[in-house]
Amino acid sequence: xxxxxxALALPLLLAAGLAAGVPHQEQERSVxxxxxxxxxxxxxxxxxxxxxxxxxxxxxLSVIDRIxxxxxxxIEEVMGxxxxxxxxxxxxxxxxxxxxIVGAEYMVFGAFVTVxxxxxxxxxxxxTETTEIVTTADVRGQGESLxxxxxxxxxxxxxxxxxxxxxxxxxxxxxxxxxxxxxxLETALAFSEALCLxxxxxxxxxxxxxxxxxxAAPGSQIVRATFGLLRDRAAEDARNxxxxxxxxxxxxxxxxxxxxxxxxPRPTQC
Length: 270
Known about the structure:
Layout: H1 10-19, E1 30-34, E2 38-39, H2 49-61, E3 67-69, H3 72-81, H4 92-102, E4 106-115, E5 118-127, E6 133-142, H5 146-160, H6 167-179, H7 185-199, H8 203-216, H9 221-253
């Protein structure tokens, strides 16, 4: 569903709602798109980490009722249509087009750099309609303490948007973050590879990759959910291949020469 962008700033909307005594569930929800974080490390090893960072941030913030997050797969789909899927980098004009297509009022851009052993996460939020920068945030710390960095980044973004969370909302956010927890950088990198394979439709390979992540982070809700999604996609992919093979055999019996079904090669981008 497309959402019509609003000209009013998020802080003003929230202030107006609170002043009127409107319960949180009745307030208008601001639609936010979190883009894949850019890899500014110069190290190809981290090339897909931005997928995991955006995925976890989207999932964490999804429990805040006053924010509606655009699904990560939808963002990646539109980036593919705009021929941005591989690079992931967008200029302001293209970002505006992307935001309008997915119906986002606000766009979250992120990047990360590392100077071992430290990592820094930088973000900025822009208003889609005007491309105006609403707020910026950055956090830094030990790269191996990725979970701590993610928690602090979510807090910074919420503060920058002038969202004053209730105790209930704060507890819900912390519970969600703990449920999604991926502690170490190596596991996050493996999760990122699985997401990359998912984005390019290599479901069997993605399912194999996510199984290793499950072993390293068995309690992570976001990993379990991704595993379930990939299991279903891989099963559907296998059924389609069986159907294509059967049609090919039938065509041979009828004297036709249809193209033989072939398994897609693993995407070189992942």
